[in-house]
Write a structure and sequence with these properties.
- The structure holds two protein chains of two kinds.
- Chain A has one domain: Roll (SH3 type barrels), CATH 2.30.30.40.
- Helix content of chain A is 34%, strand content 14%.
- Chain A is built from five helices and five strands, in the order H-E-E-E-E-E-H-H-H-H.
- Chain A has a five-stranded antiparallel sheet, with no helix packed on it.
- The termini of chain A are far apart.
- By secondary structure, chain B is mainly alpha-helical.
- Chain B has two domains: 1-80 and 185-231, no CATH class; 86-184 and 233-320, no CATH class.
- The longest helix of chain B is centred in the last third of the chain and has 25 residues, at 207-231.
- The chains are: A alpha+beta, B mainly alpha.
- At the A-B interface, helix 1, helix 2, helix 3, helix 4 and helix 5 of A face helix 1, helix 2, helix 5, helix 6 and helix 10 of B.
């Protein structure tokens, strides 16, 4: 009977693991932004107006409000409410640095636990280390990554070109 | 020993490495021995020993964070061969307007693509999308892991309007989403690493494992660079990117006929376009035929208004 109970516990554990994997967060639960330069949007489109003047930092904590398809409505720590793509969020309250994989080669326990291992900043540093000829290329790429398109400008560009846009979001060239 | 193995199997069952049917059978019979099948024991021994060389499909092991780092280094290998600084985004750069224009077209395509992601797609790039103009004569474009999309100055020059440029870029976005770059990694690149080293954990890997992973990443970078610059992605991948790219461009509001038009333009130019940047996209009647056959799906599409051609010609004047 004891063994039967133990095995039943294992089976229950399996079911719980499967259940947790598909459940949406609870209202008020703290989630963590894991994408870089992600904009909080006023609607469920990347062409809707941005809430606030700048993108959210990776590592920012937000509170879950509701889910709609693959978008989550959230509230930021400075009380802005808007929508983020589910894929931009880690559905837990963890500590993440602004850059993926940490600021330097040192990787925090939370980073490893959240982002996993494999090809990481640490591996990139090892790869770069023996190829000094690639240094200008990485510097160029870092500059490229800093450039972001303003969603409102993009929406105005779409509207001007008679392309799919968000009528309520405005924007112009 | 047998008791320990039983515990190991119970833990493995919890971790999802042992079959559910075996667990249910053991619950029904009340005999943990029912978990002791040859297959289950082998599985536990394998996973416990961090079996090196157990990765069969690299793409399945890579998290969005892993793909971001791989894509960065592939991009650097492209940037090492082709200059982009003439089209850098810095203020005061006369070609910066062309770069910003391409980035805006890319943003609209990325927005459309995010609404079309399905189970066959990779997760959306965690570092965002980046659309960059390379200062190269050859007509080409490259969609790399991690959301990096490069378009050559030659492609800007060859396209006749914004819709053709958008079609080319949407095709590259589709390559990224379908993980075609990752599929070009040779199987033996991961021979010295274990799938366990890609799993979430609580500790960093030691120096020897980082060295093995660096070797695997270096080989993967070589394979993807070779594919995009020399060999091209597989024919199936090209056809798949045509189909998804057409859907993405159309969703953004662009003309679904534009990709076929651009392929025909490219076919005329390819005789004079050579070198490592010039020959990786097959231009042929089959691709055009398949793109045209799908037009019935896009019956409501509007014709491109003159403003799109006007602003395209103005923004890309520096490329001509």
């Amino acid at each position: 009977m004891r063994i039967k109970g133990r095995i039943a516990g294992v089976a229950l554990g399996l079911l719980l693991v499967a259940g947790v994997a598909v459940a949406a967060p609870r209202q008020g639960e703290t989630l963590t932004v894991k994408a870089l330069n992600v904009n909080l949007m006023s609607g469920k489109s990347l062409l809707s107006a941005r809430v606030g003047s700048s993108p959210l930092d990776r590592g920012a904590h937000v509170r879950f409000v509701e889910a709609s398809a693959d978008w989550y409505k959230v509230t930021t720590s400075d009380n802005r409410t808007g929508w983020l793509k589910k894929s931009a969020l880690e559905e837990r309250n963890v500590v993440l640095s602004k850059k993926i994989g940490g600021e330097g080669v040192q990787v925090s326990q939370h980073e490893v636990e959240t982002a996993g291992r494999g090809f990481t900043k640490e591996v990139e540093a090892e790869y770069k280390g023996s190829r000094s000829n690639l240094t200008p290329g990485y510097a160029a790429l870092d500059r490229i990554e800093k450039h972001t398109v303003d969603p409102q400008a993009a929406n105005g560009f779409a509207k001007e070109g008679e392309l799919a846009h968000d009528e309520s979001a405005g924007g112009g060239r | 020993m047998r008791r320990q193995l039983r515990w190991a199997l119970a833990l493995a069952a919890l971790a999802g490495t042992v079959g559910c049917a075996d667990v249910l059978k053991a619950v029904r019979t009340g005999r943990p021995e029912d978990l002791l099948t040859e297959k289950n024991v082998k599985t536990v021994v394998k996973t416990g020993a961090e079996l090196v060389g157990d990765i069969k499909d690299a793409a399945k092991e890579l998290t969005p964070e892993n793909e971001y780092y791989l894509g960065r280094s592939v991009s650097v290998s492209i940037l090492a061969r082709a200059d982009f600084k003439h089209f850098a985004f810095e203020k005061g750069n006369p070609r910066g307007d062309a770069a910003e224009y391409v980035a805006r077209v890319g943003y609209l395509l990325a927005a459309a693509a995010s609404e079309l992601v399905d189970g066959e797609c990779r997760p959306l790039p965690i570092g965002g999308w980046h659309f960059v103009v390379l200062d190269v004569d050859a007509i080409n474009a490259y969609g790399l892991p991690g959301g990096y999309v490069f378009v050559t100055r030659g492609a800007l020059k060859a396209a006749r309007n914004e819709d053709e440029l958008a079609a080319v870029m949407a095709h590259e976005v589709a390559h990224v989403l379908r993980g075609h770059g990752l599929k070009s990694i040779k199987k033996d690149r991961f021979a010295k690493v274990s799938s366990k080293w890609f799993k979430k954990g609580v500790e960093s890997l030691g120096a020897d494992k980082v060295a093995a992973l660096t070797e695997a990443m270096s080989g993967s970078i070589d394979d993807i660079t070779q594919a995009v610059l020399v060999d091209g992605y597989s024919r199936d991948s090209e056809l798949e990117a045509d189909e998804l790219g057409q859907a993405i461009a159309s969703r953004a509001g662009y003309d679904p006929k534009a990709m076929a038009a651009f392929i025909e333009t490219m076919a005329k130019s390819q005789a004079t376009s050579s070198g490592e940047f010039g020959t990786t996209h097959p231009a042929d009647a089959e691709r055009v035929g398949k793109l045209q056959a799908r037009l019935a799906k896009y019956k409501g599409a509007k014709a491109s208004p003159p403003i799109r051609t006007e602003r395209f010609l103005a923004a890309t004047k520096v490329a001509r």
